[in-house]
Structures are given as structure tokens and as C-alpha cells.
Design goal:
The protein is α+β, with helices and mostly antiparallel strands. Strands 12, 13, 15, 16, 17, 18, 19 and 23 form an eight-stranded antiparallel sheet that branches. Strand 2 and strand 3 form a beta hairpin. Helix 4 runs antiparallel to helix 8. The longest helix is centred in the middle third of the chain and has 34 residues.
Length: about 525
């Protein structure tokens, strides 16, 4: 498809009063593609070189989030249609490629009846949690050793793809994302029609240059990202010139992967992902001396992940020991608190024969109990919660309490089970009530039999450590009642999934509806 300069696209938008042109008509959050299967959630980027929009979307059939590379243009333009078809073909060939550094291509679709005007095709891939490279360097470049470590999976993926005869199209900063685990990944596969393997290597050089300097060295940068400076001869200035702490080898491989001459005047010489990867591996443990000035931290707006720019990578063994120690302490604390709660509840609710009753206004336990009848509690607000700070489908979390069992909120598909030391301890939602309420029962309607759920009170910010567990259960298919051990009225609770169920080679769960019984105070 025909590429447009950034200036031309901006001019076209100005002429339309800031709105998108005809090719973008209808591509807004909430729009659906492919006969209603994919519902657009949020646009996370765009590739103006090939008129592609990058979206996070919901797969209504499989109930999971996906990454959409939407090719737009004039359907009557034969060149645009041909280029789009070529991109779809190349993406389909990549669907059999499986690598940690690349999101797996799930499907490619051509325009269908009902799609927004101007859609020429869509590449559907796994959704990659995290943030793109622009956000990663928003507060400045990374330490060289950190940059080298993060980029290794992508460099390995480029080399593996080229051995398989594939091109990834890893030459645009918004197509590349960094996961909460700290690995850079090709998140929006779909190379341009004319892209070659050398473009992937140049993309690696540009990504490394960006992480080392905060500047983009490959064509027009998106979203006002600073451009790499050039010298008198028009070539890109080496990263080491901008930051003397950058090792010579990293600076050289970034420049030569871009196809520019290095500091010795040598041109080229880096044409494979393997060559880049070797240098990255040599310097992945390198860290500059701690700065007494701005150490700085960059925070991802989507995940809340904090990157300590001058800190070395945490020792895995120490971290594992710490997590085990905290786990043992938490379990011990929970057992003590539970025992005290049981004793207090038993003192007030059990008569001599063990039957449950409450004191009347005269304090006579022999009189019939005068409990307030339990009624359905109105849930006034639902907010998605994730222990790792990366929201799971926040746009659909309101379906948990919309009164319609045909709608649902689902987790993302995780590659590993939830739990301490994993990607997340739990994911769920905070339910708020209109007033403090004495809770008695919570009912979950879910198809995910085998998933485990906790109901926790909230003390301060919602977390897996604050508050106390007042109910837990393993879900059955359909409705699962959970009796709540609430000793004090509360105005909100945390309902969190702590164990998922196997799904499509990973783990996920979904909930159709949550209802609560209790009595207002």
C-alpha cells in the first residue's frame, strides 16, 4: 500500500478539522470487525508508513484480548489493495512461527460486510501486555546493560525468523512492546509489502539506538519522538557520542546495524540478528556506576511497572527466597487472624447446643433470634484489579454486575498459572456498595469450573496483602455461592481470582455475573 509522509497525513487531518480521513472512518473504540467478532477497545499506535493502525481488541468468540494490525486505504486503489494483500500473505506465512520474542499470529482476515469503510485487511495476533518503546523511554534512555538485556529476545526472534525464511517487520517502535516480565517483543507482526530481512536488522539497530539515547534513527519518528542527530556528512551520530557511558561495542553495533558507517568509517558489516545478539549478550550484565544525580524511573501507564534505571536486575535466588518467606509469614498471619475471628464469631452466634442465633435487645439468648433478613446488595461501581498492575480487560469489567448473565468479563490468557513468584498473584475486581453493609453471601456465575476465588476486605489500596480474606471457593460451572465471614460492615470488597483454568495452551477464566447478599447498617 502507498506510504505517506507524516507531514502529509497531518495536513490531511487538518483539512478535515482534526478528524480521520475516509480510510479511518468508523475505526473508533466500540466498532466491530469481521462480522462482529472483534470489538475495538483502544488504539495503541499507528504506522503511517503503510497506513496501518494498531489496536487492542476483544475476540468475542474466544473471549480474549488480541492485537490488531488494521490496514487501511482506498479499496479502489489497486496499489493499496495489492500491498495490503501481500502484507496479509506474509503475516499468514508467519502464523506457524513460534518464538518468545514475537506475538503469535492467530489469523488474518480480509474486509467483510459491515466493516468500517477503508479497511483493507487485518492481522490478528496474541495481545502483549506491557507498553511500547515510546513509553519505555519517555523519561529518558536506559542504562546500556539494561537496554542490552531487554532487547535480546527480539534479536533472537529476528535471527530465528530469518532462518525460517520469514520477515517480521520489526522496524517501528509502536509495533514493539515490552512485557511486564521485562522482555522486548514484536507485538504487532505484519511486515510491509516491500520489507526485507535487512529491514528487521535495521529495526534492531534503531531499537537499540532508541533505548540508549531516547532518539529514533530510522525515518520519520512517530508522535514527536526526537530524531537522532546527524553529523556533517549526514550520517547518524553514534550513541556513545551522546552518552559517553555507552560501551563502544554497543554503540558500534547500533550504528552499523542501521547501515551507517561507524566511528572508524566502516560501513555496514552487521546484516544478521545473530551479530546483534552476540553483542547484546556480551553487555547484558553491564551497568554504569550509580549516578548521584537523576537515577530516575520510568513508569508504564498501562501496567504500572517501574523500571529502576540505574539498578541492576534483582537476583532471582534472593527474590525467590524473599517470596517464600513472605508467603510463610502471610499464611501464619492468616491462620492466627482466622482463629481469632472464629472464636469471636462463635462467642456471639452459637448457643449451648451449637445452633446459630443472635441476642435480642434484652440480651437473652433463650429468645428467638432477631436477625435482619438478607437482601440483595446494590453494587454501585466495579473497577478492575490486577496484582501486577496490568489490567485484564478493564473495558468489560462492568459486565460483572450489569444484571445480564449473557455478558462476561474474562482474564487475559496467561502463559503460566497465577501465584507468588509468577506473573501475577491474582486478578479480579473491586466491588463498591452505596453504603456500609454487613455481607453474608456472594454468588459467582461462571463457566470456569476449577478456578479459585478469594473475597477480601480492603484496607487502603486494594492488594493481595492488605485486608483479610472473608470468603473463598473453587468455582463450579454455573453459580457458586460463597459464604462471607464479615464481622464488620464494609462499603467495598475485592473479588480476586487466584487460580485460573487451562485454556488454549495457557490459563484464563471468565465470570458472567456477581451478586451479593447482606444487610445495610
Amino acid at each position: 500500500m502507498t506510504s505517506k509522509p507524516t507531514e502529509q497525513i497531518a495536513a490531511e487531518r487538518d483539512e478535515t478539522g482534526g478528524n480521520e480521513g475516509p480510510a479511518d472512518q468508523g475505526l473508533v473504540a466500540g466498532a466491530v470487525l469481521d462480522h462482529g467478532r472483534y470489538r475495538l477497545l483502544a488504539q495503541v499506535g499507528s504506522d503511517a508508513r503503510c497506513d496501518a493502525q494498531l489496536w487492542r481488541a476483544k475476540d468475542g468468540v474466544l473471549g480474549r484480548d488480541v492485537a490488531l494490525t488494521i490496514l487501511v486505504g482506498d479499496r479502489s486503489d489497486s496499489e493499496s489493495a495489492t500491498n495490503a494483500r501481500r502484507t496479509l500473505e506474509r503475516a499468514m506465512h508467519a502464523s506457524t512461527f513460534n518464538h518468545l520474542g514475537v506475538a503469535r499470529v492467530l489469523d488474518v482476515v480480509t474486509p467483510s460486510t459491515g466493516d468500517p469503510t477503508g479497511v483493507l485487511g487485518v492481522v490478528i495476533a496474541e495481545w502483549t501486555h506491557g507498553t511500547d518503546l515510546l513509553d519505555l523511554v519517555a523519561e529518558g534512555p536506559l542504562p546500556p546493560g539494561t537496554a542490552a538485556r531487554l532487547l535480546q529476545p527480539l534479536a533472537a526472534a529476528v535471527e530465528a525468523a530469518h532462518h525460517a525464511g520469514l520477515v517480521l517487520g520489526a522496524d517501528h517502535p509502536q509495533r514493539i512492546r515490552i512485557t511486564p516480565e521485562g522482555e522486548i517483543r514484536m507485538a504487532f507482526p505484519g511486515p510491509m509489502a516491500q520489507a526485507s530481512s535487512s529491514d528487521d536488522v535495521r529495526g534492531l539497530g534503531a531499537a537499540l539506538y532508541l533505548l540508549l539515547t531516547g532518539r529514533w534513527a530510522l525515518g520519520n519518528p512517530p508522535e514527536n519522538l526526537p530524531t537522532a542527530p546527524t553529523g556533517p556528512d549526514g550520517t547518524v551520530v553514534a550513541p556513545r557520542t551522546l552518552r559517553p557511558t555507552v560501551p563502544m561495542e554497543l554503540s558500534t553495533v547500533a550504528v552499523r546495524a542501521l547501515g551507517n558507517p561507524d566511528s572508524t568509517g566502516t560501513t555496514g558489516g552487521v546484516r544478521t540478528g545473530a551479530a546483534v545478539l552476540r553483542v547484546l549478550e556480551q553487555h547484558a550484565t553491564y551497568e554504569p556506576a550509580p549516578s548521584t544525580g537523576q537515577a530516575g524511573a520510568a513508569s508504564s501507564g498501562e501496567t504500572g511497572e517501574v523500571w529502576r534505571r540505574e539498578d541492576p536486575k534483582p537476583d532471582r535466588t534472593k527474590r525467590r527466597k524473599l517470596m517464600v518467606s513472605l508467603g510463610v509469614l502471610s499464611v501464619a498471619t492468616l491462620l492466627v487472624v482466622s482463629w481469632i475471628a472464629v472464636q469471636l464469631i462463635g462467642a456471639f452466634t452459637e448457643g449451648p447446643t451449637g445452633d446459630t442465633r443472635t441476642l435480642d435487645t434484652n440480651g437473652d439468648p433463650t429468645q428467638p433470634p432477631q436477625q435482619v433478613p438478607a437482601t440483595k446488595v446494590d453494587i454501585t461501581d466495579v473497577v478492575q484489579f490486577s496484582a501486577n498492575g496490568s489490567p485484564d480487560n478493564p473495558n468489560s469489567v462492568a459486565y460483572l454486575a450489569d444484571g445480564d448473565p449473557n455478558t462476561d468479563w474474562g482474564t487475559s490468557r496467561y502463559n503460566q498459572q497465577l501465584g507468588p513468584g509468577g506473573i501475577s498473584d491474582g486478578t479480579g475486581a473491586v466491588l463498591s456498595f452505596g453504603q456500609p453493609t454487613a455481607l453474608r453471601q456472594l454468588v459467582i456465575d461462571s463457566p470456569s469450573a476449577g478456578a479459585t476465588v478469594q473475597v477480601r476486605t480492603i484496607s487502603g489500596q486494594p492488594s493481595m496483602q492488605s485486608g483479610e480474606v472473608i470468603g473463598e471457593a473453587t468455582l463450579e460451572a454455573g453459580e457458586t455461592p460463597i459464604q462471607l465471614r464479615s464481622t464488620q460492615p464494609v462499603d467495598k470488597v475485592l473479588v480476586v481470582i487466584t487460580q485460573l483454568v487451562p485454556s488454549e495452551g495457557g490459563f484464563s477464566s471468565s465470570i458472567n455475573e456477581v451478586s451479593v447478599l447482606g444487610s445495610a447498617t
